[in-house]
Amino acid sequence: MSKLARDNRNADLARIHMAKAQLGLDDATYRTVLMAQGSVSSARDLDHAGRQRVLRYLEAQGAAPAKKRPFGQPEKIVWLWKKLSETQRIRDGSPQALLAFIARVTGAGYSHARFLPVADATKVIEALKAMLNRPKADAQP
C-alpha cells in the first residue's frame, strides 16, 4: 500500500471514529452500521468504497463532515504562482518558469513541486508570499 493510500485510509478511519463519537453510537449499533454498510464488523477491514459508504451513512445520520485541508504545500505553491501571474507580478507564469524559480530558491532542481521536501516547500511558499505581498512597481507614485 502506498503512503498516500495509507494516509487516506487512516484519515477515513479517523473520520469514521469521530462520527461514531459525535453520534454517540454504542458498540453494538456501530458494528451493525459497519455490517449493513460495509459487510464487515471492524472498520479496519473496510476497503475504500466501504469506508466512503459508512462515512456517507454516518453523515446522513447527523455526523458533521470532517473538514478537509483545501490543499497541501505543492498545490499552494502552484496556486501562489498562478496568483502572481494573474496579478502580473511575474513575466512568465508557465510551469517551467515555476520550476526554475524553485531551483533558484532551493538550490536544487525538481521536476514538480510535489517532490519538494517540506523544508524546501516552505522556503518556496514564503518566497512566493513575499512576492505577492510586495507592492507592484507600476503602482508606486
From TrEMBL:
InterPro entries recorded: Phage_Mu_Gp16
Name of this chain's protein: Phage gp16-like protein
